[in-house]
Specification:
The chain is an alpha/beta fold and about 575 residues long. It has 16 helices and 26 strands.
Length: about 575
C-alpha cells in the first residue's frame, strides 16, 4: 500500500527513509506475512521521468523535487568553498539520482570491518554471498556474481574512442585491463558496470519496493517528515512525523511494537538521533534538546571521497562537448535513445573506471602485496568548468580521481532543535598530511597517463587545473581548487565493539544503550569502502534484514513479547 495519508494502528517495524537501505528493509521484512511494516519517506514518489533516463541525473541533482539541496560548511582546504552535497529526496533515495555504478569495494574493506567490530559476519567471505543473493548480473551466475536477484547489473550501452585511448594509456602506465571490478580486488582499468535495465536506471525503488507494494502488511507513506524517535525509558517505541513541509501540519505518531529502523543515510540518520536526544550530551543540551542518551559518537567519523577533476582538451576525436553542441546533435542523441535505449542519454555520469595505487614507489616495485589501489578514476568524454554549467565548446575529456581511503574525518550535527533546519556538514577534506600527499600523487599520475603514447595522437592539453601547478605545495593547492565531493558520505553512526566509546551501533546495528532502535544505512560503516558506496549500502540492509528476522525468531522461541529485548551497551 502506497499512500500520502497517515495509516492506522501499530506496526511491528517502522522504517524511516525509503532510500536504498529502506527499500531493501521494506521488501525483506514484509516477506513475513505475520508482521506489519511501515515505511516513511520525506520525499515524493519516483515518477519524475528524468529519474529513469540515465543522463537525467543532470536534472535531478540540484532539483528540490529529488534532492535535499544540502551544502557543506566552508572547507578550509578547498579555499573556503562550500560544496553542494546532493542527497536523494524521493523513493529510492540517492539510488534515484546517483551515477548508477555497481561497485562493491575491496576484500580488505570488509575484513577491516570484521576486525573493527569483532564480528566475522562482516568479512569479505561472509558478505560476498549477500552481494550475490541481491544480484541479477548480465553474465549470469558465477563464483563472483549472482543471477535472478532484485539488483540488476548490466554493461553500459555505449563506448567512446577517447575513453578507449585513455584505457590504453593507463595500461602503458602499469594499470592492467580488467573486465570486472567486483571480485574483491578492483585493480585495473575498464568500463564500469551499471545498475540499469535495457538502458533505463534501475533504482532501489524499482528493484525492491515495487515488488512488495501489493503485500497487505506493508504501508508506504511519502511526504512524511520524521521529527524524532520516541523513546520511553530505554526503548524506542515509535516516531513522530508530519505530512508535508509545513510546521503547521499535524504531528502523527507511528508506533513500533518491535523496532524502529533508521535508514535515512549518513546525513539524516545522525540528525534524527540528535533531534531525538541521542548524541553528545553537552552539544544537545547547548541547543535546548533534552538528552535521552549521551552517545558521543553520533555525527562524528564522517568520511567521503574527494574527487579531483582534471580536464584535457583534445583534437581529432569526437566527445560529448561537440556532439551535443548543436540542435542536430541533440536530435540524433535523442533519437538513438528513443529507438534503441543506447547512446549518450543512456550513459552513467562516468563510463570508464580505473583503480591504481598513488605511491610511485609501489607502482615501480610491481609487488602485488603492496599494490592495493587507493585511487579510483571516473573518466568522462566531456568537460565543463563546474557541475551544472554548460559543456565546453571544444572536444575534451575529464579524468576525475579520488582517494579511496582518506584519513581525514569530518562531522554532521544539528544546529538547532528545529527538525526543519539543515544539519551542519563539515567533511574536513585534505586535513591530514597523508591525504594531501595522496592528492598530489594522484594529479601526477593523471598527467603521466595523459602523456602516454596511446593518447599522443589527440594532443591532450591540460585545461583544469592547469599546467602551472608543479611543486608538491602547488599540487595540493590545485587539489583544493578543483576538489569536490563524489557523493559518498558514510560513517556518521559507525558500528564497533562494545568497548569502543565512539561506536554508535554494535555489529548487529543496534543503537548502543537504546533497545528497539537500529541504524541501517551507509552511516554505520566504520571506514569507507574503496569505491562507490551504493551497493555496499544495499548489502548492509540485506544483512540487517537477516539479523532482524533472526532476532524476531529467537524472541518468539524464548517467549519474549518484543524482539531485541537486550539493550546493547
Amino acid at each position: 500500500m502506497k499512500t500520502e495519508r497517515a495509516p492506522e494502528g501499530e506496526f511491528d517495524y517502522v522504517i524511516v527513509g525509503a532510500g536504498t537501505a529502506g527499500c531493501v528493509l521494506a521488501n525483506r521484512l514484509s516477506e513475513d506475512p505475520d508482521v506489519r511494516v511501515l515505511l516513511l519517506e520525506a520525499g515524493g514518489q519516483d515518477d519524475y521521468h528524468w529519474i529513469h533516463i540515465p543522463v537525467g541525473y543532470l536534472y535531478c541533482i540540484g532539483n528540490p523535487r529529488t534532492d535535499w539541496l544540502y551544502k557543506t560548511q566552508p572547507e578550509a582546504a578547498l579555499n573556503g568553498r562550500a560544496l553542494s552535497y546532493p542527497r536523494g529526496r524521493v523513493l529510492g533515495g540517492s539510488s534515484s539520482i546517483n551515477g548508477m555504478i555497481y561497485m562493491r569495494g575491496q576484500r580488505e574493506d570488509y575484513d577491516g570491518w570484521a576486525q573493527a567490530t569483532g564480528d566475522a559476519g562482516w568479512s569479505w567471505n561472509s558478505v560476498l554471498p549477500i552481494f550475490r543473493r541481491s544480484e541479477d548480473h548480465h553474465a549470469g551466475e558465477s563464483e563472483a556474481h549472482g543471477a535472478g536477484g532484485y539488483w540488476r547489473v548490466e554493461k553500459q550501452r555505449l563506448s567512446w574512442e577517447i575513453l578507449d585511448a585513455f584505457a590504453r594509456a593507463a595500461q602503458e602506465n602499469g594499470i592492467a585491463s580488467t573486465d570486472d571490478f567486483n571480485r574483491g580486488d578492483n585493480s585495473g582499468v575498464g568500463y564500469f558496470e551499471v545498475n540499469q535495465k535495457r538502458g533505463v536506471r534501475w533504482n532501489a525503488s524499482k528493484a525492491f519496493l515495487r515488488p512488495a507494494l501489493s503485500r497487505p502488511n506493508l504501508a508506504v507513506v511519502t511526504g512524511a517528515h520524521t521529527r524524532r524517535v520516541i523513546v520511553e525509558g530505554r526503548r524506542a517505541t515509535g516516531v513522530e512525523y508530519r505530512l508535508g513541509d509545513s510546521a503547521h501540519n499535524a504531528v502523527h505518531i507511528a508506533r513500533a511494537r518491535a523496532e524502529v529502523l533508521l535508514a535515512s543515510g549518513a546525513v539524516n540518520s545522525p540528525q534524527l538521533l540528535e533531534l531525538s536526544g541521542i548524541g553528545d550530551g553537552r552539544r544537545l543540551a547547548a541547543l535546548g534538546i533534552d538528552v535521552v542518551h549521551d552517545l558521543r559518537g553520533v555525527g562524528e567519523n564522517l568520511q567521503d571521497h574527494l574527487q579531483l577533476r582534471m580536464a584535457f582538451r583534445v583534437d581529432g576525436v569526437r566527445t560529448l562537448n561537440t556532439l551535443a553542441a548543436h540542435w542536430w546533435g541533440k536530435l540524433a542523441i535523442g533519437a538513438e535513445y528513443a529507438l534503441f535505449r543506447r547512446g549518450p542519454m543512456s550513459m552513467a555520469p562516468s563510463q570508464l573506471g580505473a583503480f591504481a595505487n598513488s605511491d610511485p614507489a609501489v607502482r615501480r616495485s610491481g609487488d602485488p602485496a603492496l599494490a592495493r589501489p587507493d585511487l579510483e578514476y571516473h573518466v568522462q568524454p566531456l568537460s565543463l568548468d563546474r557541475f551544472g554549467e554548460p559543456l565546453h565548446r571544444f572536444n575534451a575529456f575529464t579524468a576525475s580521481v579520488c582517494h579511496l581511503r582518506p584519513t581525514s574525518r569530518g562531522s554532521i550535527h544539528v544546529t538547532s532543535a528545529d527538525p526543519g533546519s539543515a544539519p551542519a556538514i563539515a567533511p574536513n577534506y585534505l586535513s591530514t598530511e597523508h591525504d594531501r600527499r595522496v592528492a598530489a600523487n594522484a594529479l601526477r599520475l593523471t598527467r603521466r597517463i595523459a602523456a602516454a603514447p596511446a593518447l599522443a595522437r589527440y594532443r591532450p592539453e591540460e585545461i583544469l587545473p592547469g599546467p602551472r601547478y608543479r611543486s608538491e605545495a602547488e599540487l595540493v593547492e590545485a587539489a583544493g581548487a578543483v576538489g569536490t565531493t563524489i557523493f559518498h558520505p558514510v560513517g556518521t553512526c559507525r558500528m564497533g565493539r562494545d568497548d569502543d566509546p565512539d561506536a554508535v551501533v554494535d555489529s548487529r546495528l543496534r543503537v548502543r544503550g537504546i533497545a528497539g532502535l537500529r541504524v541501517v544505512d551507509a552511516s554505520v560503516m566504520p571506514t569507507i569502502t574503496s569505491g562507490n558506496t551504493n551497493s555496499p549500502t544495499l548489502m548492509i540492509a540485506e544483512r540487517a534484514s537477516d539479523m532482524i528476522r533472526a532476532d524476531r525468531r529467537a524472541a518468539r522461541e524464548s517467549g519474549a513479547v518484543r524482539a531485541d529485548v537486550a539493550v546493547p551497551i
